[in-house]
Amino acid sequence: MKREEKDVIIGEIAQLLTKYPNVYVTDTSALTVAKTSQLRRLCFSKGVKMLVAKNSLIQKAMEKQDAAAYEGLFVSLKGTSALMFSETGNVPAKLIKEFRKSGNDKPLLKGAWIETAVFVGDNQLDTLATIKSKNELVADIIALLQSPARNVISGLQSGGGKLAGIIKTLSERAA
After folding, report:
1. Phi and psi at residue 65, in whole multiples of 5°?
2. CB atoms within 10 A of CB 150
3. Measured between alpha carbons, how far is 120 from 24 in angstroms, rounded to an integer?
4. How does DSSP assign 105-143, residue by residue?
5. Residue 27: strand pairing partners
6. Which of 10, 87, 88, 107 has the smallest set of CB atoms within 10 Å of its CB?
7. Vertex 40, ends 36 and 41: CA angle to 5°?
8. How many CB atoms lie within 10 A of CB 104?
9. What is the pTM (predicted TM-score) of this model?
């Protein structure tokens, strides 16, 4: 591979690292061509960009972006590596778990960079799958903030009905 071709690949990976806040490094070496194609289709349907590249080129792209931020992932760049880029941090982990349900023990999670946090090792897959996305966290916070207001409004509405019933009963007794 010529230097110009390597520079193009490094530039493409660096651009994807800028675009996506979450990247997973996986090992897909034991997958057949058919299984790899099936994985790529699943990635496409879930909005995950998958890219296979040489470890040295991946590391150079990461160093080009921010070497200190990605430094924790450098230990996972051994053997065959496929990158999975995603807008949402838990989608690739859920995708890998879903793919494994069909009888595959691959892809293995080598490492992940989730919005500045580094996770290394396949044992982190369950943790990553349960991480809530930014939108899910915002929705949870809004629901928590709305809960007391809903209780007050509900109490006032039910109390108003009771109060009206009491006043009606009293007025009927007085008449």
Report:
1. -75, -60
2. 10
3. 10
4. --SEEEEEEETTEEEESGGGHHHHHHPPPHHHHHHHHHH
5. 108
6. 87
7. 120
8. 16
9. 0.76
β-strand pairing of 49-53 with 81-86: antiparallel
SS (H, E, C) 37-87: HHHHHHHHHHCCEEEEECHHHHHHHHHHHHHHHHHHHHHHCCCCEEEEEEC
- Cα dihedral: 101, 39, 84, 44 (round 10): -120
* In contact, 39 and 50? CB cutoff 8 Å: yes
Return the closest-CA partner of residue 54 out of 8, 90, 19, 94: 8
Distance (Å, rounded) from C-alpha 13 to C-alpha 113? 14
Tell me 96's DSSP state: H
From first to last of its 175 residues, the chain has per-residue pLDDT tens of 788 898 999 999 999 999 998 999 999 888 889 999 999 999 999 999 999 999 999 999 999 888 788 888 899 999 889 999 999 888 999 999 999 988 777 889 999 998 888 999 999 898 898 888 777 788 888 888 877 767 666 666 665 566 667 777 777 877 6
| DSSP 8-state symbol, 89 | T
